[in-house]
UniProtKB/TrEMBL annotation:
The keyword Cytoplasm applies. This is Nucleotide-binding oligomerization domain-containing protein 2. The gene is NOD2. It is found in: Basolateral cell membrane; Cell membrane; Cytoplasm. InterPro entries: CARD, DEATH-like_dom_sf, Leu-rich_rpt, LRR_dom_sf, NACHT_NTPase, NLR, NLRP_HD2, NOD1/2_WH.
Amino acid sequence: MSAQKLVLSQRAELVQALSRGGTAEGVDCVLDLLISWGVLLWEDYVCACVLPEAQKTGLEFGKCVSVVKDDREPSTMATETLLCHRPFLVSRLRDHVDGALEHLLGRGCLTSADREEIQLPVYTSSQQARRLLDKVRFRGEDSAMVLLHYLDRTTSPPPPEKENEQPFWLVYQKKLCSSILAQCYFLSTCGGAGKYSLDDVYTDGLLELSQGCGDTQVSLGLEDVLGQVGTLNEEADTVLVSGQAGSGKSTLLQRLHLLWARREALQDFLLLFPFSCRKLNAEERELSLRDLLFLHCCWPDRDQDKLFAFVLDNPHLVLLTFDGLDEFKQSFSDERRHCCPTQAAPMSTLLFNLLQGSLMKGVRKLVTSRPEAAGPSLRQYLRKEVLLKGFSPGGIDCFVRKHHQDRGVASGVLQALQSNTALLGLCHIPVFCWIVSKCYKELLGCGKGSPQTFTDVYLMVLQHFFRRKSPQQKSLGSSWLLEHFQTIMHLGQLAFEGLDASCYIFSEVDLQNSGVAEEDITIGFLIHSKNFSSTDERHFEFLHITMQCFFAALHIVLSDKTNLNQIRTLFQTQCKSKGCIGFCQPREQSVMTTESSNPQITAKFVSGLLSQHHSDLLQQSCSATMLGKKSKCVVKCVSKGVQRHFKSIPQPVKGEKKSMHAMPSFVWLISCIYEMQDSDVAMNSVARLEVDHLKLTYCNIGPVECTALAYVLQYLRCPVGLQLDYNCVGDVGVEQLLPCLPVCSSLYLRNNNISDEGIRRLIDKGVHCESFKKIALFSNNLTDACTQDFAHLLKTKQIFLSLRLGNNNITSRGAEQLAEGLRCSQSLQYLGLWGNKIGDRGAEALAEALKDNTSLVWLSLVGNGIGNSGAQALAKIIQKSKTLEEMWLSKNCITRVGVEYIVKALEENVTVKSVWLRGNNLSQPEVEEFQRECRLIF
Ligand code: ADP
């Protein structure tokens, strides 16, 4: 029979096999059929299996033998049977791989090494079945017989009765789980040698509700991401996890997928469909929802119609996840409505209607994105938003120890981080933690010159990969950049053009166009893009988006084709096209949004690379004049950008302070200055800032940004109030802020995960800073252990005005220690201890210390479990004070007796304007009776 006839006669089987889109499964199924028909010789089959995906399509079976399915004698050889019935056996075996392995092992047909190899979690169950068949066939007749008997007994005859059959969705669920397990087992950045399983290295990141979704300080667990807590809009189905690049969003999603597939979490959802927006970008066809689910995730072998109906009928049992919305080439828009699940539409329409809820209402969707990409039009459709804030200090410790089995190495890395707090600050972002752990040899070997900036860290990883390529060279020579210049330029061009076109996955043609050769790939910055479904070509992506930005920056800096206008464009602060740098595409071609995270990261690297600090390295491969011009241009752009912010500050209303609420790009510009590590640039850019109050609330400021802020703000001419409420400063961030403490008159750090350790360091420095007079630390993790430090501050600094420690964990013991400082303070005017647990004993201690105080104006002890004896003691302050104006005692457990002490004290006081007593233990008649004293407020 001719090949053509064969294909025609077996068309139905081939079509069915090929239509298993989304994975290599389709091609593998065809290969199964071909080998079973004898069209392929075993050698051809093996070659085809190891071919890159791209070449599988072009298979030519030149050596095919003339034996075809119909002409062959039924075989009596068991090994032959394994070949002839391969497609059937794969489908039989795939749900019984573990059992079959045990059986074969027990009979000495396979070794445990064989078993481990077959069961590698990166294989789907069908792939495991194929490997098992191959191994057994090569063990010979006896082993093949054992397997066939086992399959006969275990899997056949198939259950005859319909009611014994597994529900159709369960069969599909198993396939989904198996494909998800295969995809999620290893971390993507750990591609190549030294793979780490997610189980081995996954470390919990800090998850918090975003502003407006409830108590933002509560830290959440993984299950809470899709749980009820923080729900803002019950009608909406989309949950957003947002975080900056490298904060661990994809890894978190990967973890959730893995737990679901292993039945360890999210078991309310029977089906989970994972999508990557990066990959959806490549879908140019119009698809129906059904195609999207089945073609892009996992093809159901049967019952497609029933399954799709099941999904539509049971939306609450289905979860869709979309990783990296920021990388989707179009910005979210709700202009085009599409509600029909069977009607085809462009990918963007499908995606946006799913998120917005017109399509598949009731199906929960979990989306990850950098915050910039989730604008107000998407936010109105959100069920809730969860912020991923990277690692806590404990998380860094845990990650490093998980990464290094060798305890000595782990301790060495942790020590190196402790002695370089700028680097420790960077490690709060998991991708940096990963780089630092990966490059531990370089880190431990670099002594005092250990990395300080984003750019330093990425140059370190660059050297690491090049060194790995030539292991005989223990350390790279000083001209390493020159030696690898061509590779850097090829990858740089690929990265740069990719960013410019919002492209993060590259075909082999893209690689060729940028001159990226096989040897450039082997260095390791590019990894294979797993399960890229649009074609069977090989596809690649950079290890991480930040790596792509770094190579783009190298291209901008090193290429003599970059002109200064391009650099100016990169540093423009407003309105960049989505993801796009805007060099190659005319502006109007892309949708304009404020999303500009990739250009901002690239600009930061450009600033760092053009710093004086790295000029020796760069001058080896390009002209000093060109670098000098580019560097000057960057300095000018950044300084002008900062000045523009200052000019935008409105003139203060008479009597009020001049206050600047920073725009989002302000922190980025400051970070660019920090990357340059040039104090003159820092000084010049803030020299003209005249402002009393700098407000940077909700700006996603972590330790890294604190390092940069302090580096620049230390050069301010006049002291400012620095308001950093609702960020993620933490103890490391506090330490990073210390260089600018001398120019801070007040520091506002509400809700910033700060603990006693951070306070200790802050006060050590603060006592020596002349201008430092106020601090607000509501809602942090403070305990009694920090009150001695505050006491020391109050004793030492007789100009200190305001101490606000509300909503922490201070008890009576802490109040007693604080009292020691209060006793000596002649200056404190505001003391806030709202929402602690000082109780009567604490109140008595404070009252005792303040009895002769001549400065206190405002005292808040709301919600502190204070009863009558506390009230009696506090009444003594009222009685004697000539300065106190307000005392807040709401939400305590004071009764009539206690209030009577206060009333009495008020009779002798003329300064107090109000004593707040709402929410104490008083009846309505008692309240009415006490209202005769108009300064009592109930
Ligand atoms: P994002 O999606 O936010 O850009 P990724 O999830 O890609 O960040 O994280 C970048 C890298 O950081 C990962 O490849 C991994 O090496 C490391 N990483 C991130 N989160 C974790 C985590 N929770 N545990 C261990 N490593 C992590």
